[in-house]
Structure formats: structure tokens, C-alpha cells
User: Fold these one by one.
Assistant:
Number 1:
Amino acid sequence: MRREELPTPCYLISVKKIRENLEILNGVMDRTGCRILLAQKAFSLYALYPLIGSYLSGATASSLFEARLGAEEMGGENHIFSPAYREEEFDEILKYCDHIVLNSPGQARRYKDRARRAGRSVGIRINPECSTQEGHAIYDPCAPGSRLGTTAGQLSEELMKGVEGIHFHTLCEQNADALELTLRSVEEKFSPWLSGVKWINFGGGHHITRADYDRELLERCIRRVRQRYGAEVYLEPGEAIALNAGVLLTKVLELGRNGLDIAILDGSAACHMPDVLEMPYRPPLRGAGKPGEKEYTFRLAGPTCLAGDVIGDYSFSHILTPGETLVFEDMAIYTMVKNNTFNGIGLPAIALEEEDGDCRVWKQFGYEDFKKRL
């Protein structure tokens, strides 16, 4: 079918754009010898895992369910990190994952030897205590009091015995200069341990496929670490795989006015694009401008009872009409993996746009999907 025939709301993922992003990432791998993994927490559309797996080294998980999904649908390497593993799940995790990253001295003492006996490569997540975030403490693993990672003062010969890898993840939607700064802190604080490991994982948050990303600096950082410590280097971006690769199609349901013009959509910030409220951020809308930039300004809002279910104020060159389709851009990442059925609002359909422009619905959701979650 064509795009205009798709149901709404609907996440529409461009296979062409996914492939373009993967080609960029694969080029980084080829030029540096590093290994890049899909961080499933940002993008878990397993319909595309065979394509992703043909370019990248595998996947990384944050839970048992993600670990199983990566093992069953992707193949390749399968890594996992969790702040704390559940005892009743750990044996199954060992079945699916070849690299196990432990978060704390307590987790290392509890699970390190067990993972090694299963033939798994064990790593420990460190906290470089080097914040590079500005204004988003919720996404800063190095914020004071962070539960993520082990600080340098907590490491010891006993703790590191049998540990093959060092993992750090401190970035969020950032450029390579933030990685360079973080690496400096890692080398200053953890140098006694870096030469003895087989792999060093730079984590995620690298916006490698963004147009202004400094890939030359990233590649210099990778080469330096590989040459200096003789270790394999891993990166595990999520957003970079699907950046700008999807849209959310939504229709105008009704118009109203209360001091300004309001359009109620069948797409919801609270249910379908929760980062709009959580980060918060303003999603780009095709053909629209900032408030007052064009002739007609509307507040776009969702259909739930939450008063704050507001996507934002946008201006248009025409008056919106019920039934009109709007296209929110960059909606592949942190949408499908975070959406919910608050108020009994249905989940958006998921569709793929093939490279020839043909679209096919991958999944549609109904009442039973809502009911099964309750």
C-alpha cells in the first residue's frame, strides 16, 4: 500500500534510512576494527533485525526479555547490562548472552564466577564521575549519587580477578567531544585496570549518524584505545541506528479554542511519544513552523484525559481540518519501546516503508493487546 492508505496513528519506519545509518556505522567498524552493537532499549523493531545484523556485530540488552529477543531474532554477539540481576532469571540470561556486564561490587561477587563457569565473558561497568550532560540530570549516569557503575575507589585486585571487560556509558545524544572528555577521565582514574582487559565498551549515546557528528574524532578515540591497551573496542548506540528513520502519522480528530486554537489528534504525547513529556522536547513536524512563524498557530494535543497531554504549539500556512494527516518526524527511537495504553488508547500500528516507497503494515494492535496488559 501507499503511505496515505496506512491507518493512524502509525509508526512508519523507512528501510532506506535504516540502511543508510547502518552503512555509516559499518564504515566506522571497517576503518577502526571496533565492534558496534544495537542497543535495543532505543529501537527493538525485530522485523529489521536481520538487516541490522548483516551490518553490525550483534545486540545489547537491558533485561532478560531484550536478551532473548536479540538472541532469537538477531544472532551475532549478545551483550547485557543491568543495574541488578534477578536471581531467578540469571541462568536464562546466561543461556542467551555471551557478554555479561555487572554493575557493582555486590553484583560482581554474586554473579562473576557463575558467569565465568558458564563460559561467558564478564565485564564490570565503571562510573568515571565525569558529567557531560547539560540540563538533563535524568539521563546523566555520572550525576552525584548515581546507581550506575562502580567508582574507581571501589575496584580491587580481588574484584577484578576474572573480569575481562570494562564498560562505561555516560553519554546521551552527544558528539564525539563528550566521548573524548569521558575517555580522559576513564584513563586518569582507571588506568591500572585498562591494560589487563580483553575489551572496553564505550556504551551508547553516540549520535554517530547525525549530520554534524565528528566521526573522525570518534575513530581517533577508538584507534588510540585499541593501540594503547590492546583491547577490543565496543560501541552500543541505539538512536544512531534509527535516527531520523521513522515518522508518526496521526490524524486531526477535532478543533477547539480556549484563548488559542487547539487541535486534538489521534496521536498522544503521553501514550505514543512519551519523551515529549519526559525529556521534554519538541518533536519536528513536517511542514509546520514555530508558534507565530506561519499564519495559523495551533496547540496540538492528544485524546487522553491527562491535561498535560500536549505535544506542542505549531504554526501552519493553512487552517487545520478534521481528518487531516500530520507527520511527526524522528519517531523511530524511544517510541515503540516506551508507548503505553493509558486511558485504553490503542497502540499505533507499525509499518515499514520499503526502499521502492511501498508500505506494509507489520503489526496492528487492538482491544486484546490492551486487555492483556491489565
Number 2:
Amino acid sequence: MPPMQEREVFDVLVRGDGCVGRALALALSAQGLRVALLGREQPARSEDLRTYALNASSVALLRELRVWETLPREAWSPVYEMQIHGDQAAGRLAFSAWQQGVGELAHIVDAATLEQQLGAALSFAPHVRRVSAPVPAALTALCEGKESEAREALGVRFERHGYGQQAIAARLVVEQPHQGGARQWFRAPDVLALLPFERPQAECSYGLVWSLPSERAQELLAAGPAEFESALLQATEGAVGPLRLASGRAAWPLSLGRADRVSGPGWALLGDAAHVVHPLAGQGLNLGLADVAALAQVLREREAWRPLGDERLLRRYERARLAPTLAMGELTDGLLRLFASETPGLRELRNRGMGLLNQLPPLKRWLTARALGA
């Protein structure tokens, strides 16, 4: 990526240098648009323990950007089966790629590696320049995350509801191969997901995402490895055998958030700057990459006479993303509240509902299609 030339004119300023911002810069550069990318070039991170569950639409976008093929094989793992456990024996739900007629249900991807490879692809993008301060552009795309200062400066109201929970991430190893199987436990008051992975040990590793009340999360973060592994064994009911820590542990607070508007004259919001959801469905980055695909399509299909920052043009993007993001926010929030309740009658009802859904293949296929981004 060549350095910025003095007085260079840009079509789009992308504020934010995470996965969403980098993907947008690549997508718009491919259209021949002149893009300024505002953010750090070499992010200084400590060990990044996050994993992303990418759906088929996200993988398709990364293929289109010629990034997917550059990911090292050990940086991603396909999910062929998903088993969901409730908090009673009747609460069981299983999905398989074979039954749904797809190659994979999802791909689990190392967060740090994906961000690095997006950055590597940018070095070959002829129309992208990195900038260290905002520059004039016809359109500003805000991909700065949920704490975006530029969003606040625009007067956009970001409604956020804190769950009083934190998500713990770690890497785990087991004795038996995972065989591409993911598992998730929905209970009051926590949600635990084991995501099949290849690091540090091929076929015998999991990425952990464990959402708990903040006080309990802090207790587990402070616990020694043996105590933490014991808590994991109890929480997973020994379903995959003993789980051993193979990394440090990290945590972050969880919330539901949505901007009251995601576009205006000369600007648009994408990713966490526009919406934040609970990670129980693994759809956070999928929503952000879907924003990228939608905005890129709107700009690509605009009338030749219409400016990039035209408010009516950007409303097309807003309309395209309104229903999917609102539906995912309501779904994740509803599921969390449903399984957070310890009311005996409701507990029995939700577990029986899971068992009933497991016996309805057409509805399962419909749900799978929504999760895959179809």
C-alpha cells in the first residue's frame, strides 16, 4: 500500500482498522474507488484468544476479496455438527451439515490471523492509502467499533443495554479429536460454547466462549488452571472429556446495542459501530461483514450521476441492513432472557421446545439457512 501523496483526493474515508474496516477498504478498492484507511497499520496486541464463527456468506465475501485462500490451514476449522444442550434432559438440539445439505455449518477462524491476512491483502490494494488523521472524502464509513467517537460527533444515539455478564475466551485441548463438532450449553445463568479448532493441537483443540455473570467470570479468571479446568468439566458434564487450558484467559463485558440510524449525508455506520449483539449465536462479525457486502453493492450499483455520499443512496444500505440486524439482536436477546430465567415452568417449557424443534427437520433447515446467511 503506497504512502499517501500530498493533496490526494479520496472517494471514501474508512475509519477503523479492524476486520470490518479492512474488508470494506478491500471491497471498495476493487471497484476502483480511492480509499483512505484511518487506523493503526500494525496493531500491538497481546495474545488474541478470540475465534470467529463465520457463516457461508462471510466466507464467500472473504473469497471474493482473495483473503480466505491465504489463511493458514491451522487457522480455521470447519464445523460439521452442532449439539446444543439445555438444562434438562429433554433439552437437546442437534444440527449436522449432512442433514442440512451443506458442506459445513460454519468455519471457526482465528481472529488475529484473519485480521493479519486482511492487512496483508491491503498491501496489494492499489487504491487504498493509510492516513494518520481524517481526510476529506465524499463518504465516511465508520467501522471504529462500539465506542466510536466519530459516531457520537454525528449526534447518533447508540442505545446500549448491559447484560451484567462477561465472556471468557481461552484455548483448550482434549484427548479425543473433535471431528468438526461444536457444542453449546444454555443454562441459567450462563452460556458456554466449545468451538472446534486446530491450535495448539490439530483436531484436539477448542476455542472457548463462556458467558457468565460478571462476578462469577472474575472469580474464574482469578482461579488457578486446575480450578478453572474443574469448573469446565462440571459445566460441560464431561461430554468431551477433560478440558485442559492451553492459553491464558481473556474476558470482555457483554451488551446489546443499536444505533438509532446507520446512515446520513456523507456517512454510514458498519459493524459494532452500528450494532452489538450477544455472542451466544456467534453472529457479531458475520453481521459486520454483511454490512460490508451490502454497502459495497449499493455503491457499485449506484447511478452514474449520484454522488457517493448522497443521503438517498445511503438509505438503500440502511434499508438493506435494518431487518437482518434487528432480527439478530432480538433473537440473541430473546434466547438469553429465555434461558436466564430459573422459573421451573418456563425451564421445562424451553427444554421441551428444544426437543420438539429437534424433531422438525424443515424448521431446522430454515434456521440453518438463516445462520448461514442464506
